[in-house]
Amino acid sequence: MTRGDTGFPQADAENDFLRARRRQVLSRLAAWLRREPDDVNIMLPFDEVVDALGRTGERKIGPQVIRLDSIVGSVDRTRDFDRRFRPMSGRLRQRWERLARAQRRGEPIPPIEVYRVGDLHFVSDGHHRVSVALALGQDTIEAYVTRIDTKISANGIRFRGDLIVKNDRRLFLERVPLAGPARTAMVVSDPWNYTILSETVEAWGFRLMQDECRFLNRAEVAARFYTEEFEPVVGMLRQAGLVGDRTEAEAYLSVSEQRYRLMRTHRWDDDVITALRKG
After folding, report:
1. Regarding the domain delimited by 9-150, which CATH topology (the fold level of the hierarchy) does it fall under?
2. What's the domain of life for this entry (predicted)?
3. For the sheet containing 140-150, what is the strand order?
4. pLDDT digits over 162-177, tens only?
């Protein structure tokens, strides 16, 4: 029995629901007072997450015990509960309290059903069970798990806004199919920079094909860009202490932009190059 319980399942279940609703409203008020982004308390929608990461397949894992704090989203009930599965309205009360009573009486509760994306879980069946378990202070819950495989990792997803960065990174890696350390190194925080980086690599590859008079596929261009352009430039930036608190890709884009501006605002013909060499 937790503090404040009466020992009567009916009354305690009613108090559980009212407490969960109060916490949900207070959480919204606190977010408003702190001027936090609108998506802080919003449950992550499964379809949007999978679309952003690029679905490649799925596999049933079966029954497992999972941590409740790993459940961050839903397949189709994002309007009924907030990010911490607190009820968003009173219309869920009857079913919610029925489950809370059963839980308090020690009745068997069937496992929920979830999709696993990376380390995150999304509920397809059992939203009320998750909500009640969290309200009663539980840490884990039994679940039937189906794992979803994706093109890029779900690491770093906290809020709905993070999906924009993930989606643009997936598109970038489709245009610039890097692998290994090169794939890890090409990271930016602003999603728009992935578009700029894609165009930078493609333009570099076009010039390379012109110089060598032969066609190179995207993977070949990506690999050569990393070893022949990106690594040498980033190496110089590191030696000069110019990377700072940016990612290496952001530092590269910064100096690349300056080089492009110089090329468009200064004369770089043979006479200038000859004069520089003599100087």
Report:
1. 3.90.1530
2. Bacteria
3. 44-45, 71-74, 120-125, 112-117, 140-150, 55-67
4. 899 999 999 999 999 9
